[in-house]
Amino acid sequence: MVGPLSWLLASLAVLAVQASVLTLQSPRLTVSSSDAAQLRSEPLSLAHKVTPPVELRATDTLKLTFQIVDEDGKGVQPHQTFVRFYDEVTGEEGIQPVKVTAGGKAKLELNMARPPSSLPPSGKDPIKVSLYLGSFKHDPAQYELFDLFVPPSQPPAQHADEVFFHPRPEIFHTFRPEQKVPPKFVSAVFTLLLAAPWVVLLGLLAHIGPQVPYLFSSGIFPFIATLGAFEGLLVWYWVDLHLGQVLLYGAILSIPTAIAGKRALAAVGERRLGKSSPK
C-alpha cells in the first residue's frame, strides 16, 4: 500500500516534469539565392531578435534549422511545432507546421519561388516570425525569432469564369415598332376589289331574274355557301389569322367545297338535259 508520503513525492515529481521548459539548441538561419550561393548565415539568439531584419528576394530561399531539447539537453519531439507569420499592421497571419524528428531536430525551408499558402500577403511593414512549441509533458514555449521582409505579393491569377460574377451591363429591351396601318383610301380600294366578285354575282342574279330561286336548291346552294365561307376566311385572315392558319383552314374547307361544286355541276347538267329533252 502506498503511503501518503510516497503519493506526495510522486505528485511533486509529476509537477516537476510538467514544469520543465523546452529550449532550442543551435538555431540558425540561412538565406541562399537561386544558384545556391549563401547570402546570409547566422545563429539565432533567443534573447533578442535578429538585426537587421531578414530580407528575401523572389528567388531566395530561407532555411531555419534547430534542435528542441529539454532541461537535460536531451532531444525532444513536441506534439506541435509550428512557425507563425504575423503582420501587425494588417492583422494577417499564417501558420506553417514544422517537421521534427524523434531526436528533436527540425528544419523549415521557405522558397520564395514557390511560397507556401500560409505566408500572409506582404506589405511595406515586416512580418513577425515566431516559433511555438506544444507538448503534453512540458510547458508550452514561444520564441520570437526575427522580422521578415518578403517580395510584394502578386495579384492572384484571374479565373476564366470570374467575369461572370462581376456586375454585368444593364439589359435594355428593344421592342418592335407598332405595325403601320395603310392609309384609309388604300384599304377602301382593296376592300372594293375583294367585294367586286360579289357585286358581279349580284348583277348576274338580277339579270337571270326568275331563275334565282333555283340557286337556293339543295344541289346549288351548298356550293355557294362554301364559296362564301372562303370569302369569310379571307376576311378573318385580314383581321386576326396568320398565314399558316389560313392554309390549314383553307385545306380543310376545300374538301366540302369540291364535293359541293361537283354536285352543283351535276345539278346544272341535269337541269339542262331536262330542258333540252323533247316533250
UniProtKB/TrEMBL annotation:
Any one GO BP annotation for this protein: protein N-linked glycosylation
One Pfam family linked to the record: Ribophorin_II_C
Spans traversing the lipid bilayer: 185-208, 220-239, 245-265
Domain Ribophorin II third: 30-119
InterPro entries, A to Z: Ribophorin_II_3rd, Ribophorin_II_C, Swp1
Keyword Ion transport annotated: no
Secretion signal, residue range per the UniProt entry: 1-19
Any one annotated GO CC term: oligosaccharyltransferase complex
Compartment(s) of residence: Endoplasmic reticulum membrane
Residue ranges constituting the Ribophorin II C-terminal domain according to the UniProt record: 175-272
Principal cellular location given in the protein's record: endoplasmic reticulum
GO molecular function, one term: transferase activity
Pathway: Protein modification; protein glycosylation
Keywords recorded for this protein, A-Z: Endoplasmic reticulum, Membrane, Signal, Transferase, Transmembrane, Transmembrane helix
Protein topology in the membrane: Multi-pass membrane protein
UniProt keyword Transmembrane present: yes
Matching PANTHER family: DOLICHYL-DIPHOSPHOOLIGOSACCHARIDE--PROTEIN GLYCOSYLTRANSFERASE SUBUNIT 2, RIBOPHORIN II
Function: Subunit of the oligosaccharyl transferase (OST) complex that catalyzes the initial transfer of a defined glycan (Glc(3)Man(9)GlcNAc(2) in eukaryotes) from the lipid carrier dolichol-pyrophosphate to an asparagine residue within an Asn-X-Ser/Thr consensus motif in nascent polypeptide chains, the first step in protein N-glycosylation. N-glycosylation occurs cotranslationally and the complex associates with the Sec61 complex at the channel-forming translocon complex that mediates protein translocation across the endoplasmic reticulum (ER). All subunits are required for a maximal enzyme activity.
Family membership: Belongs to the SWP1 family.
Protein's name according to its UniProt entry: Ribophorin II
Source species: Dichomitus squalens
